[in-house]
User: Fold cysteine--tRNA ligase from Lentinus brumalis.
Amino acid sequence: MAAQQQPWSPPAQKAPEPVLKLYNSLTRTKTEFVPTTGRHVKWYNCGPTVYDSSHMGHARNYVTQDILRRIMTDYFRYDVHFVMNITDIDDKIILRARHNHLISKLLSDTTALTPALVEQVRAAWVSYVQSKVGKGLPESERPAAGSEFEAWPALVERFGDRAWRQANLQRDEKFEMHFNAANATLNAIRHAEQQLQASQTGAELAHTLIDASKDVLALALDKQFGSTVSDHTIFRSLAAFWEGEFFRDMRRLRVRDPDTLTRVTEYVPEIVSFVEGIIKNGYGYEVDGSVYFDTRAFDRAEDHSYAKLEPWNKGNLELLEDGEGALSVTTGRRSPADFALWKASKPGEPSWPSPWGPGRPGWHIECSVMASAIFGDNMDIHSGGIDLAFPHHDNEMAQSEAYHNCRAWVNYFIHTGHLHIEGLKMSKSLKNFITIDEILQKYTARQLRLAFLTQLWNSKVDFSESLMTGEVRGIETAFNNFFTNVKALVSQAEAEGPKLDSKNHFQQAERELTDSLHASQAAFRAALCDSFNTPEAVNVLRDLVSRTNVYLKAPGSNVEIGLVQRVARWVGDMLRMFGLGEGESTEIGWGQERSADEGGVNREEVLMPYLRTLSTFRDGVRKLAIAKGDNALKDILALCDKVRDVDLVPLGVALDDQEDGKALVKLVPPAELIKARDEKRAQAEAKAARKAAAVEAERQKRIAALEKGRVPPQELFRPPNVPEGTYGSWDENGVPLTDGEGKELSKSAAKKVAKEWTLQKKRHEEFLEWQKQQQ
Assistant:
């Protein structure tokens, strides 16, 4: 019988691998992520409505979505198809484009400051106070028609009361913005009136008035002339400009471009067909050229449910109206919750042909059509900011499920949390936002990304100065120092060459660090599987770095360079995976923080400052060596100090002298090195000053002591050195024999003066010697 292999049993898994779970807004729980088609993931992300500068709220949303996308693609290795839209036609875009156009036209048409122009701005201001500012005021304080100017000073005084402002903000969250715009306009009006009285009527003065009051004036101009704006390129050019600015900002933030980008204006025919399909399925109806979604019919259907994300907001009219836009006409709807699928265009609005007449898409239908065009009747992930959950995302799902006749258009809905800055929520509509351009002048893209990584993606982010200068700066410094030290160790080991290792066993310290690496890798995966828990994942990396630092600093340890490199490379790989830097996978560190639009590196520009420093140092050493001076060694050491303390500091290179005579090289921001050098100099100067002061004090003390010997001992007991009549007679050396009454000095008194005379004789001799030295 032929020999056979022994039966084999599969190994028993001691610790099961964690599965990825996502916090799903559809369940408000963490649910296991199961893509519908193998490892292929269909992911749609709501893009921006492009009508103004990108701000920190955009950074919070799109950087966070980029982090999650990188985790899915670069860590979990899913094959993600990431689609994002650009909303390039919308009520906000139409209004902003018209306002800009009408203000520009007024500026070009105005050649002088005139009473008519001032009156035009005054009328706009009155209308603005009544329609905008008045919404936030209590009814008892709203100015009566015709009394706006007289009532304003009292309102300005009340505005200083924080409690009063807060109460008005409860009535209208835009109250403070409207009040500030009205106040600025009124100040401009008064200034213009003074200029008119002084017969100052130049065009630049008129333009200053228009610019200062444009927020108020634009509304009045739009009400009067908005319907005359017929050039639709005005709307497209505004959107195109801000789309370009948005992507420029995203690349500066190291946010990857979407795999597929869609624009609403490129999908209008598909939108018309989609709306027709919804009507055909019984969930849409037409009113005066507009088409609305029938939310009650949809909610009554057996397989459908309206407002899956936030059903408690079904009757929130404020949110529903905000979702419809400022230009919407809502008369004729069957229910206040019904929303526009197609809007009949009014004069001054762009339009496209449709079976219901000229019109334009409703806001919510846009994403449904574009996502369906790419993914069909189902997608794995839909993402966006939490402020879009209702009504936008709920309406998206309802109309998409109505069109496709499906139960679930989206499997996982993930929403990023709000951004608060120093405790206050940011809003573009409230004009209290910080632009991305402004924030990148203060912090780097890496620091901003670290700030978002340290907080959960779906929670509210509190962005503050203390967060950036404290935790974020501390994390960045800790990783920088770790990578710098490891690189220095590797360079030193490479310079010394391979060593014969006499070890024949795995040292305990190495075993512990190896175990820590494996445990950290498992903990890191567990953290990311726990609904992308990046704060915990970053803490895992920080803890591993701390353990490695302990291993490196252990006294008498024989460092295993290969193990340290493995740790450093893995930590660097994970940081780069989060988008914190660029570099090769074999590189130690998180790589360079290069901007996305940075081209090839100019080697001459980068290297020449360092090469000039090296060349200057070499020239100095050669000169001293050739001269063969007595102080050559001392002078060469001085040159070395100059390179370290002066020449390399502006280049951001720190040389840290070690006990073994070899310097540890670090790359540090030049400003930090200059600050540290100046502080060190200041400390040295203060120490030298203290030393000089002590020497001078000692000198003055010695002079004071020597000055006591100025009087010869023969004159010590004679006037004026003692009061007249103190002594009656003296011997030949000036030692007193009798007191002032002629009585012989007692034995003790005679002994005392003799002792003082002897001491003075010594002092006088020292004084004379010092005086001789001075001469």
